[in-house]
Design brief:
- The protein folds into two domains: about 425 residues, no CATH class; about 50 residues, no CATH class.
- About 85% of the residues lie in helices and about 0% in strands.
- The chain is built from 18 helices and no strands.
Length: about 475
């Protein structure tokens, strides 16, 4: 299973590292530079708001389905037709609840028009993730990997033409950005469905009320978990935009720094997508998951530390390279936000393990505590410290959540405390801080200092055996 994880991880990361960085830094960043921080800040707030009630679209079905199909592949054909009907009903509820809360928050008609399209996009995204969960449950990881970048590839083509060609004689509009996402998600949804239908032989939808109740009863713990985690991840921009007089501008500046956190978190999310069906199958077969957990944690924690320390050291240079305006303000919070990536990476590993093991009660209590803490800190810190307060709230919340999940996983699965690994990891962190600090003092272009420091830090990870040579050989 370790070999399968590493080989599929290499393929998945390869595809995503080709496509998604260009989407984030080539397209998404260019859109913000084209329309300005304030307009993009409103978009970012609406985008994050559209995520808040996303769980109503899914109700935990995707996570439940990923785990269930991994353990019982013969149930796919039976479940598919019924679950699609459930998701159509949930989409209607999602639109109604999201619209109601949008009205309560005071969104006006121009904002509502954009929000409605974003809500429809969320419906498509949720459906794509459900279809992909079936592919992952069938262990069709390479097909799933291709689909994972299909929507972004289509968006790059459409937005690239609109941004950099003369096809439109007017300034780029945020509505074009949202509509291009709609088209890309729609094409990806149709393609994913056709792939799955060919695999299952599914022919028609079915209405089965007892089946609906059974699925919802089994999936609701996952639904609660995702709802709580979504609020923890996505509420910052919404609260910035609503709590401050210049909220849209502040949300836009926050989005500039958060974009790098989003980009790096995608890597951890890919780990989780591969690990969930693998953990689920191994636990059903009563196989030991400690070695796979150590391997996956080692492979993600090293780049997480490098990204965090690198962003903290060269924050001003990075922001001024990427953005035309407000670079200094966003640089001031980049290091704080990127420190959250270390915590998020740990959560994606250990939280996924607990999810596969069915430890939803403990995860839900942890997520509830994290959500309440995040909202409370934001209410206290944002009015006084603005984007700095939001960044600090994110770091504290994610850090405490990750530590809690590690302790729960250790106790649940009786993992041994590897003091040697912990000491080596602490030594590695100190060395990375020292290496990047010295690199910042060298009189050369900052990008070369960053590359040199990253290379030396990566070498230290191998010398300290945090990443082992045989793991790298397997990855290659």
């Amino acid at each position: 299973m370790k070999k399968k994880f590493v080989t599929n991880l290499a393929f998945l990361l390869g595809l995503n590292l080709l496509i998604k960085p260009f989407w984030i830094f080539g397209i998404d960043r260019s859109v913000q530079n084209a329309i300005g921080a304030e307009d993009y800040g409103m978009y970012a707030a609406l985008f994050n708001f559209s995520f808040l009630f996303n769980i109503l679209l899914d109700f935990g079905i995707t996570n439940f389905n990923n785990r269930n199909i991994s353990q019982n592949q013969q149930l796919l054909g039976k479940h598919l037709s019924g679950i699609i009907v459930i998701r159509i009903l949930l989409a209607g509820i999602f639109f109604m609840i999201s619209s109601l809360f949008g009205w309560m928050l005071g969104y006006r008609m121009p904002e509502f028009r954009l929000l409605f399209v974003m809500l429809f996009n969320q419906v498509l995204i949720s459906f794509i993730l459900y279809l992909r969960s079936n592919l992952a449950g069938l262990q069709m990881f390479k097909t799933d990997s291709v689909i994972s970048v299909m929507d972004r590839t289509i968006m790059i083509i459409i937005c690239g033409i609109l941004l950099w060609s003369n096809i439109a004689d007017v300034q780029f509009r945020i509505e074009w950005f949202v509509w291009s996402q709609t088209l890309a998600y729609l094409v990806t949804t149709i393609f994913s469905l056709l792939v799955l239908l060919r695999k299952t032989g599914f022919r028609s939808l079915s209405w089965n009320w007892p089946f609906f109740i059974m699925i919802l009863k089994k999936s609701y713990p996952y639904a609660i978990l995702i709802l709580l985690m979504t609020f923890s991840y996505r509420i910052d921009a919404v609260m910035l935009e609503r709590l401050l007089p210049d909220g849209a501008l502040q949300a836009g500046i926050y989005a500039q720094a958060y974009r790098l956190l989003d980009a790096t978190t995608m890597i951890a999310y890919l780990f989780a997508g591969l690990l969930l069906p693998m953990y689920s199958r191994m636990l059903k077969l009563k196989e030991n998951v400690e070695e796979l957990t150590r391997l996956s944690f080692s492979l993600i924690i090293v780049p997480a530390i490098l990204a965090t320390v690198g962003a903290f050291t060269f924050s001003s240079d990075i922001m001024h390279l990427l953005y035309h305006a407000h670079a200094s303000e966003s640089a001031s919070i980049l290091g704080v936000l990127m420190a959250s990536f270390i915590a998020m990476s740990s959560s994606y590993i250990f939280g996924t393990l607990l999810t596969a093991g069915g430890n939803l009660k403990a995860l839900n209590y942890t997520a509830l505590g994290g959500m309440l803490l995040n909202i409370t800190l934001n209410l206290i810190l944002i009015p006084k410290y603005k984007i700095t307060g939001a960044a600090a709230s994110c770091l504290v919340t994610q850090g405490l959540t990750a530590i809690t999940q590690v302790f729960i996983a250790r106790r649940t699965f009786r993992f041994h405390t590897n003091w040697s690994f912990i000491i080596r990891l602490l030594i590695f962190l100190i060395l990375v801080l020292l290496i990047f600090s010295l690199a910042d003092q060298i009189a050369m272009m900052w990008i070369w200092s960053l590359i040199m420091a990253s290379g030396l830090a990566l070498l230290a990870a191998f010398l300290l055996r945090i990443i082992k040579w045989r793991d790298l050989t397997s990855l290659i």
